[in-house]
Write a structure and sequence with these properties.
Archaeosine Trna-guanine Transglycosylase, Chain: A, domain 4, globular, 4 helices, 7 strands, alpha+beta, 7-stranded mixed β-sheet, 161 residues
C-alpha cells in the first residue's frame, strides 16, 4: 500500500533545496482525515501541472489536525516555508477567502513524513514508467493497493533529506 499526492511546487522546491528537516509536514489547507495509510507506508510527491510526475517521497509517520500556529511550532521549516508568515500566506492562497475569520485558529491537515527523498528534475518520472495507471484528474491523493514499483527507483536516485 502506498499513496501519491498532489504537491505544491514552492513546498517541494523549498524542502529539496534546504536539507535540514528530519520530519516534514505535508500540510493540507483543510483536514483530509487520512485513514488509508499506516506508519511506514510510502507517500509520494506528485508535481502539479505542467510537470505531472513523481518527484520524491517519504515514509508516512502519522496524521493529525492542528492550527497553523501549532504546525509551525512543531515542524518549523519542515512545513516547507521559511517562516510562519510564509506558511500563513501559502495556506491563505489555497483557501482563497479563509474558512474562518481567524486564520491562526484554522485547522489544517498535517501528514507527517520521515526519511524523505527528493529527485532532481531530470529524474522525475511518470507513474506509467512503471506500468502504474494514474488518474488524469487527481484532486488530492490516491491510494494504491498494488506492489510499490517506485520505492527502489526513489531510493537509488533520490536525494535524502
Amino acid at each position: 500500500m502506498f499513496a501519491v499526492a498532489l504537491t505544491d511546487q514552492y513546498w517541494f522546491e523549498f524542502l529539496r533545496e534546504n536539507e535540514f528537516c528530519e520530519v516534514i509536514n505535508f500540510w493540507t489547507p483543510t483536514p483530509w482525515r487520512i485513514k488509508g495509510l499506516t506508519q511506514g507506508n510510502n507517500f509520494y510527491f506528485f508535481r502539479k501541472n505542467p510537470v505531472r510526475k513523481i518527484a520524491g517521497g517519504g515514509k508516512f509517520a502519522g496524521y493529525s489536525e492542528m492550527t497553523i500556529q501549532q504546525a509551525w511550532e512543531k515542524y518549523k521549516v519542515g512545513n516547507g516555508c521559511k517562516n510562519l508568515n510564509d506558511l500563513k500566506g501559502k495556506i491563505k492562497e489555497y483557501l482563497g477567502n479563509p474558512l474562518t475569520t481567524d486564520l491562526m485558529n484554522h485547522k489544517i491537515g498535517c501528514i507527517e513524513l520521515v526519511n524523505c527523498k527528493f529527485l532532481n528534475t531530470p529524474r522525475f518520472f511518470a507513474p506509467s514508467k512503471f506500468d502504474v495507471e494514474f488518474p488524469s484528474n487527481l484532486q488530492k491523493l490516491k491510494y494504491f493497493h498494488i506492489e510499490d514499483k517506485f520505492e527502489e527507483y526513489l531510493n537509488t536516485h533520490g536525494k535524502p533529506q
